[in-house]
Design goal:
Length: about 325
Amino acid sequence: MKSYNLNWVIAHEPKYLFYRVAEDFANLVKEYAGDLDITVNVLTDDEYNAKFDPEVPVNRHNLWKLLQDGDVQIAQMQTTSLARQFNSEMHVLDLPYLFRDHDHAAKVLEGKVGVDLLNKFDKNSGIKGLAYTYSGGYRLLPSREHVTSLAELAGQPIRAGLSQQARESIEMLGGVPVPADTEQTWELAKSGKVQAAEYVTQRIYPDNCNEWIKSIVHTEHSLFLTSIVVNQDWWNSLPTEVQSVFMKAALQAARNERALSLKDGEYHLRKLESEGVNIVYLSEEEEAELHSRAAKIRATHAKTVFSPGLVEAIENIH
């Protein structure tokens, strides 16, 4: 009987979130494999570097290259990074207030629209998507100053993601976007170069951002998503029954991870609150105004950025 071995490398923070979904996937593969001989090796970037001693050590920024070259068979990557490198249409998922709730998000991500986006990477990418995970969830707005309303951050520099959609989301919230990678947030906030930053609560403690956060405005303005992706050539070499095992395990592990991420987010939010961080919730009037602004952004992007009908297809899923 042929054996199938694959390496899943964890190179993103918070590692506990990414490691958890990888281990769950490995256990599900074992459960679904039956008589098939399949081994999933889950390694952190440090463990991979120590074991294989690559010429260029693997990290979050070059993991995609190892996946592309086939040195790593499967990994979890930030969806915005995949969009920036291999399929700009995936940036649609960063649009503000695109998802009505998590049930709507699940229907989009697991339905035709989500599957199509995962399977439309650039032909030269060498990778294929299997499923979406959160590894975060809704983005909020932590502030380095004590605030009691979103309006107090109006006109202030706020760290934004690198995409056009992220920048416009910060403008929608009234801030001046400062595009920066997530890892730059701590230094930007501690040095006073930004007054706030869009973030997910699951990353706050691993990234030591609790050191500067005084308030969190509970905007939930967009979803932070990651994706389980595999090397395309390796995938194509697998028999159909092995692909089916991996696909079934990826989908279930993604569902489990999304549910656990939400619980983690709420736990960390309550922990921050217990430590004196002020959680600011939007009023009904503020929510209505932000949703109105977001609808205009989505309408403009629907006409000028994305394929005809893509934004509407997502909005019309019920």
